[in-house]
Fold:
Amino acid sequence: MPYRRLPNTDNARIKALRTAVESAAATDFQQLPVSMNVLTEAKHVVARFERLCERYQQLYEVQVKANKQFLTKVKNARMYLSHFVQVLYLSVMRAEIREDQLTDYGLEGENMIVPDLTTHEQILAWGEKIIEGENARISRGGVPIYNPSIAKVNVMYVLFKEGYQTQLLHKKATTRVLGEVAEYRVTVDRVIHDLWEEVEKSHMHLPAEQRLSQNRQYGVVYYFRKGETAE
Structure:
């Protein structure tokens, strides 16, 4: 015998409820296999769930689109910071800048190796140190480093930082709505269960094949176990 199973995707949940609501709309009131209370709740629930899912999808698409632009800002910030540090180290090796001045940049313990800039947090932290360090050294009469200049590095860093903060906001909004979707799934699944229970109970008197057919018209989904057929 086939067995029913609640939908396991949001699209399937919406489809199950929409099928029941649409079938009920095309059925004479006296012949409805489901109570008006459950049917009314199903209409309300599917409408709200669709809005939640659409909202999440919109926010997710905005986040993905913004992330593509953000990746360019990440690449530029990482590249300019790395190049600046390399030029700084070369200046130290040529004795144009004293080695003890690496302390201004927080680079005194890096053994003349470019810091790890793999993560966004590392770029944020090192970018701030390096920009502040160069400005501090220049303020004491030091010759500015060029190619790249700290002004150019700062532009790339600021663009990255703004993009990073924007992405955090996008992620927060997307995560919040996804949480609302996940929380509301409990209600959706309960309504689908209650609806299917009433539909199946209403058609219990029908022959097996006809009963399954009638139930499917109201969105009930059946599966066959391994080795079983629909025949």
Remarks:
- The first strand starts at residue 3 and ends at 4.
- The chain has five helices and two strands.
- The helical segments are 10-25, 36-93, 120-139, 150-202, 208-217.
